[in-house]
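Q: My labmate handed me this sequence with no annotations at all. I'd like to see what the chain might look like in three dimensions before we decide whether it's worth expressing. Could you predict it?
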Amino acid sequence: MSRTWDEFAIRQPIVIKMLTNSLKKDRVAHAYLFEGEKGTGKLECAKLLAKTLYCKDLADDYNPCHSCINCRRIDSGNHPDVHVIEPDGQSIKKQQIQHLQEEFSKTGVESKRKFYMINHSDKMTANASNSLLKFLEEPNSQTTAILMTEQQNQMLDTIISRCQTLSFKALPKAAFAKQLIEMGIKPILAQLIAQLTNSLEQAKILAEEEWFAEARKVVLQLCEVLNSKSQQSFFFIQEKWTSQFGDREQVEIGLELLLVYYRDLLSVLIGDEQTVVFSDQIDQLKQRALQLSQMRVMEDMTAILEAKKRLSANVQSQLLMEQLVLKLQEGS
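A: Here is what I predict for the chain of 332 residues:
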């Protein structure tokens, strides 16, 4: 987690410049919409802003200390004047917004300032959205709202128009990989992790997990089996793949890694070897590329993407993988 605005600016320079300028001039807007892909730091930024507004020992006018009682309570979710709303099940319901309004109708427990964050705000029901709209139409000068979404197009235009929209951009994959390497993550892992996530926190978790390093090996082993054109691929799925990739989230990561391998094959075929992610497999990739056409690799990538869609539709994962390896071997 970024502890200063300058650290966060490495990832989101435009957003942070706008927010820090507002802080320096004491012109924080009453409502912001943080929109952008998953893992771009929206909630982390919202909490950093909350800490800045409530910190008892600010450094250089706008960096929170992270150690005073207010900073610690915001970290733990226990500050009485800072509220976070998350979806209750699949949606944010009207009752949740009404409860927030009731809380805000009371005098601030420790100050007049109130701060609330609504994560996945695109998941508000129609009634919840209308309740929030009324809340936004009558802003209190001491109230700050942060709405966060990965799906801005799913939100009411009337709500968006009452917020200052800040767009969070994913770091280019090469730049993110470089950042991970500078943090001490091995280059081979860093390049691969950067293909899977924009989240620094998730990247750290993957880098530290033995499971992920083993997952990489299993995917490469599957590719070797597929390349050999043997009938061992089904046994491999039953014995090795299913034991490594147990739940749906793990299977999705496995499919993503497989997709990266086939993208690397395509990169080799078109002479773009500098973009290869499995860089330690370059010789094997070159050898395999001699046996394939660009059209064949693109068809295989389409099959993997289709498998990812079917996984989201609750298809049984072992059956899905058996059907996928059959398709990948058909044209080999």
